[in-house]
Amino acid sequence: MERIKELIQINRSYRRFDNSKKLDMGFLEDLIYSARMAQSAANLQPLRYITVTDEQKAEQVFSTLGWAGYLKDWDGPEPDEQPVSYIVVLTTKDSSYAQVDAGLAMQNICLTAIAAGVGSCILGNIKKERLAQILELEEDLSILYVVALGYPVENVRVISIREAPDHKYFRDEKGNHYVPKRCIDDLLIKEL
Ligand SMILES: Cc1cc2nc3c(=O)[nH]c(=O)nc-3n(C[C@H](O)[C@H](O)[C@H](O)COP(=O)(O)O)c2cc1C
Q1: From 183's CA, which of 29, 91, 109, 161 has a CA 20 to 30 Å away?
Q2: pLDDT band of 42, cuts 50, 70, 90
Q3: What are the boundaries of the signal sequence (predicted)?
C-alpha cells in the first residue's frame, strides 16, 4: 500500500530530462505490457501504440508537441533536456470509451516508468496531422496522446491549492516546478 502511494506521489508530469540517458526498446515494450493489462470498456481494447526510441524520429515527434501552456515564458525543453523516447497512443475507433481506456493505459505506463526512475509527461497538445505523417500512420488509426519519457532532471512538487493563487502550475526562480492540487476537503463532498 505504501509503495503504490509513494509511486502515485512521485508520478508527476516531468518536462525536463537527461537527454544523454537513453531508454531501450525492451523497456518500452515493458511499458506496453502494462498498458495491455489496463481495464477496457466492454474489453474492446481499441488502443494501439507506437514506440519511438530512434534519436532522429524522437526529434521529429518532439517538433509536434506543445509544452506547459501555463508557463508563458518557456517554449519547452532545450535539446539536452528533451525526452529520449515516446509512446504514441492511438485508437482504432473514435469513441468516448477510447478516451477512458487511454487514461487507464497511460496511468499504467507512467506508474511502471516511474517505478524504474523514469519520468513521463502525457501530452494532448499535438500537431496531429504532422505527427501522422512522421509516423506514416495508416488511415484507420487516429492519434489520441503522446507519452514523453526520460530520466527527469527537475524537481516537481505537489502543493496545496490553498498555498497557490489558483490551479495553474508554476516555477520558482530556481526552476522548481509546483503543482497545486485541490484539498481532500474540497474533493470529498460527502461521506455517507
Ligand atoms: C489528458 C492530458 C493531457 C495533457 N496534455 C499536456 C500537454 O499537451 N502539454 C503538457 O505540457 N502537459 C500536458 N499534460 C500534463 C498536465 O499539465 C499535468 O498533468 C497537470 O499540470 C498536473 O501535473 P501533474 O501531472 O504533475 O499532477 C496533460 C495531462 C493530461 C492528463
Answers
A1: 109
A2: very high
A3: none
pLDDT at 94: 62
Centre of ligand 1 from the C-alpha of residue 87, in Å = 15
Consecutive H or E run containing 55: helix 55-62
Q: How far is the CA of 123 from the centre of ligand 1 (A)?
A: 6
DSSP annotation of 38 reads S
Q: Both 11 and 55 in a single domain?
A: yes
Q: How far, rounded to the nearest angstrom, does the alpha carbon of residue 182 sit from its chain's CA centroid?
A: 20
Which ligand 1 atom lies nearest to the CA of residue 156?
Answer: 26
Beta carbon of 53 within 6 Å of any ligand 1 atom:
no
Whether residue 118 is found in the same domain as residue 30: yes
Answer yes or no: are the C-beta atoms of 7 and 115 closer than 8 Å.
yes
Grid coordinates belonging to 160: 496545496
Q: What CA–CA distance (Å, rounded) separates 72 from 100?
A: 29
**Distance from the Cα of residue 175 to its chain's centroid:** 20
At 162 the pLDDT is 97
CA distance 68 to 121: 10
* CATH assignment at residue 165: 2.20.180.10
